[in-house]
Amino acid sequence: MVKNVGMIDRIARFLVALFLAEIGLFRLNGLEGNVSGIVVAIISLIPLYMVITRSCFVFRWFRFHSLSNVELLKFGDPYKKKDKKPT
Fold first, then answer.
1. How far is CA 59 from CA 23, 45, 78, in A?
2. Can you give the pTM of this predicted structure?
3. Is the pLDDT reported for residue 83 higher than 70?
4. E-strand spans in the chain?
5. Which of 50, 54, 48 is nearest to 75 (CA)?
6. Taking the domains of the chain in order of start, what are their residue ranges?
7. 86 confidence band (pLDDT: 50, 70, 90)
8. I need a labelling partner for 81 at 20 to 30 A (CA). Which of 32, 33, 47, 64 fits?
9. Distance from C-alpha of 25 to C-alpha of 84, rounded to nearest angstrom
């Protein structure tokens, strides 16, 4: 999987996931069975998944990344073509 989400972006996505979960579960009464609250809480899992995997499908579509220079050195450029070794 392509690692294209940087640390600052991961923190922002984590905060968005927490915010959406709080809105869905508590403000929209998802814990009490309100369908709209449950839907918002489930949607909060999308940015959380991106935080855990360090990969964003939208970034992949547009060949964009939010990696810092240090992260680029650690993980490499996510869209640079890898040289294939002859067999």
1. 26, 18, 11
2. 0.84
3. no
4. none
5. 54
6. 7-69
7. low
8. 47
9. 49
What does DSSP assign to residue 32? G
The CA distance from 65 to 53, in Å, is 14
Instruction: Using the predicted structure, report yes or no on whether residue 35 has a pLDDT greater than 80.
Output: yes
Q: If you search the block for the tokens 């940015």, which residue do you land on? A: 47
The stretch 54-79 carries a mean pLDDT of 91
How far apart (Å, rounded) are the C-alpha atoms in residues 54 and 35? 29
Residue positions counted in the chain: 87
3: which 2 tokens?
């690692």
Cα of 31 vs its chain's centroid, Å: 24
Tell whether the model's pLDDT for residue 82 goes beyond 80: no
Cα distance between residue 65 and residue 77, in whole Å: 9
